[in-house]
Amino acid sequence: MDDEEDEIRAVVDLYVTGFNQGNKKLLMQAFHPRFVSAGFVDGKLQWDNAEEFAEFCEEAAPDPEGPIPGWEIVTLTVLGATAVAVIHDRWGSRRFRDCLTLLKDDGRWQIVFKAFQEIE
Predict the structure, then answer these.
(1) Chain segment 13-39, per-residue pLDDT in tens
(2) How many Cβ atoms from other residues are within 10 Å of residue 57's Cβ?
């Protein structure tokens, strides 16, 4: 793995750890200030900006003190200062496929958009 991929993996790890622990500080480190999330939970479309998503995670994290569930990057494409990572992760007992778009802004990778779908 090259340095760019390692940096992206570290950002994705911040994101997964942050939402599972309900840790707003970690999430905000992973997110670009203009981050947006959109996807389906229980068949309903959900839209959030960085603050809304981080606050939801703070309030609803299923097991903030528990271990971080396993996650994996299924595909990763890096093109210059942009990247797309498709990951599988968990939120409590639920499994998700997250499509994360990242930008390298001011020398660091940040997630700018997340499209997600619950996996049955």
Answers:
(1) 999 999 999 999 999 999 999 999 999
(2) 22
CA–CA gap between residue 109 and residue 102 (Å, rounded): 6
81 Cβ neighbours under 8 A, 6+ residues apart: 103, 104, 105
Residue in the block written with tokens 């496929």:
97
Query: Tokens 């809304």 — which residue?
Result: 52
Burial 3-36 (b: 16+ CB within 10 A, else e): eeeebbbebbebbbebbbbbbbebbbebbbeebb
The residue to which tokens 């981080």 are assigned: 54
Q: Give the list of residues 6+ apart from residue 68 with CB closer than 8 angstroms, or none.
A: 16, 17, 20, 21
Size (the chain), residues: 120
CB 32 within 8 A of CB 110: yes
